[in-house]
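Protocol step 6 of 9: fold each sequence in the batch and record its structure tokens directly after the sequence line. For illustration, a two-sequence batch is reproduced in full.

Sequence one:
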Amino acid sequence: MTVAPDAPDLRTDFPITKKMIYMNNGAVAPTPLAVVKATTDFMVKCADEGPDAQATSDYITLLLKELRTRVAHLINCEPEEVVLTQSTTEGINIVANGISWQKGDTIIARGGKHEHPANYLPWLRLSQQRGMVLKELAIDENGFFDLDELEKAARKSRLVTMSHALYNTGAIMPLEEVGRITEENNALFCVDAAQTAGTIRIDVKKIGCHFMAFPGFKWLCGPMGMGILYCSKKAAEMLEPPSIGGESAMVSGNNSSIIAIRGMPHRLQTGFRNYPGAAGLEAALRYILRVGIDNIRSANMKVAEALRQELGRIEGVTLHGPQDVSKRTSIVTFSVPKDPSMIVRKLEEESGTVLAEREVAGGRKIIRAAPHFFNTEAQAATIAAQIKALLLQ
């Protein structure tokens, strides 16, 4: 059962909506009260029943199973393909550092340094320290690339990596076409889904990726310090575990020198102890799935389009990102004839409106608004009026 995302009672689940206009959900989103309660309920349970009591241990086992099941519903994978991390960055590093690379292997990164740092720096370091070739796909002003160029480059490549949607323009990349190209060329495919998980429908089977990393604390509205790495069954054996311990391995038989690595997802997740965060993320996923991803997409784009229209009427404001609404998320980026960092700072200090400063291809500084389903078209109009007033000062 889904709930209309623009229902007034849904906004009451986010206390911040009573105090300010928060449209920086592409960085960290506020958590609904259900997530706060789930996190604190877990801590209270540990305090009441003992953090290492059998009852608590059984509860944690069930909790992690439920969490993986909800992630599986979100992205259409198997629960055992879900590895719990602390962030997108950690997930991508598990992949980058886990593959058995050979000197001269080629990695293709869309846009190179115009990717988010979390999905560029790990590959750049590999190229510098391990002798891999890092090929950067040329991009246009919106961040799109030439599929023909990718098809040629992929013939001799070990791995292709890119964001699902861009953190600066919101442009949605053609992942299914990329997945087809990588499959035809026997290349691995890694996706940074930080800006899409929780805001548009994701199907890893249709995409055909081997790895996908995303946080729980952006569009999924979960607690900070929780992330997800999807690792397909067929790719799991290609990754050397980043660390090792009792959860991920064991000594085999009577021979104390033989280490046996456990199966997925445990092989990639030793030492995980953020159980309060897991409780919060499970509640967040339950909440998001109840509202419905398609409903969220519709509500988000309504606010985004209202904001783009209002901003488009302001002299000196330039909108960035694809014109085609189907090719972008609700992220709205725009440049102004004044210092964007000053505008962002004054909006928060003087009006209680939270946006973000980012940059687009070419290094141009821009302002980013990232509305989610608890934001409204009225708030979009207010933001535009606030920006217009600041530009007239």
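Sequence two, same batch, same settings:
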Amino acid sequence: MGQAIRGSTRAPGVLALALVAACPMGVAAASGTGATDPPGGAGQAGAVTQAVREDPVVMVTPADGSTGVPTDTTVLVGVRNGTLKKVAVRAVKGARGTLTGVLSADRTQWRSRGTAAPGTVYEVTAVVADEAGGTGDFSSSFTTVRAEQGFAVQSLLPHKDYTGLTVGVGMPIMITFDHDISDRLSVERNLVLRTSKPVHGAWHWFDDRTVHFRPKRFWPAGTRVRLEARLSGVRGGKGLYGRRNHVLDFRIGRSQITKGSVHTHQLTVRRDGETVRRIPMSAGQGGVWKYHTTSGIHLAMSREPVTIMISPGIAPGQPGYYRKTVYNTVRISNSGEYVHSAPWSVGSQGRANVSHGCVNISPANARWFIDNTLIGDPIIITGSPRRLEPTNGWGHWQEDWRQWTRWSALKGFTTEPLGRSGGQ
């Protein structure tokens, strides 16, 4: 019988494993007793010979004893002249946890999934079967690169408290980190999106800490969405690694798109392709640039029962100053634009533009509009010479697809499928 493998219990006839880690593949020679003379003397006919059988050869990456291994390195375990019965990669010093993986159909290769933790010693163990059916144990270890500092998600939208978890078809996913990210590709690769309906979209970096996702076209109504931010151990830059993972589940509601024209002074609200309300409006009076309502694809950013509106850039006592309490407002930009109740301009609504840039509607229509709007609903205004800037509020849809993907590391992808139980 061959020499026992470290920590193994082998059935008779199992031969020693040969370990090959990050070097050319080798084959362990079989060991045996050789031929013996039969009774009656040497050289007689019928001499017995013993066949040579090759031992399993195990190959592992990273090599045994490796240090400073990048956290996104794929752990590979392969075997020749045998099969893998079981493979485990477990943290034994530093962080806790295991790396999951996938075994090939012929059970000769195993590949890890996910990202390792920085500054951690991992032990790779495998149970290997030879061609005769006996088994042996194998182990090796490696150490990942040490993190100098960590990064985390500082804010994430949609959020149950700020937007609700059922949102409009224009809603972006918005992530802000607490440190500057220089390895954008590594981070994007680990922001996994799963949806109940296939969606093509892309992440877009507004700066080193802010990345947003939007589809190429509006979300399909009724889509369930799950964001899996698998950031634990992910490299964000030199010496910078993610601290933890995040999961966000939300839904896209019915498709409601509101369109309005500063020329016709009308808002038309369409839900799932059907017109559900026509609303007379009064847009910005113009004259001064800031008094033009911006044209473009706005999104409903907030619903506010009461908003205090103050004249921008005009102090109390100066001509044009105002401070007004306004009810039932839906914010559509960061430059002070709302769709809101304006009882003082009802006579002009549907006829003329008299506001300071907001979209004025009647109190009854404002009540209906705030009650029937989801955060992320598109509100599209046309006819104004002043264009909504992409960075003014949630002006994400003001960039065409080429402009949007210019600031994406992955340049676009189709979401992964979401199971029935996901996003509930």
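Proceed to step 7 once all outputs are recorded. Observation for sequence two: The chain has a mean pLDDT of 89.
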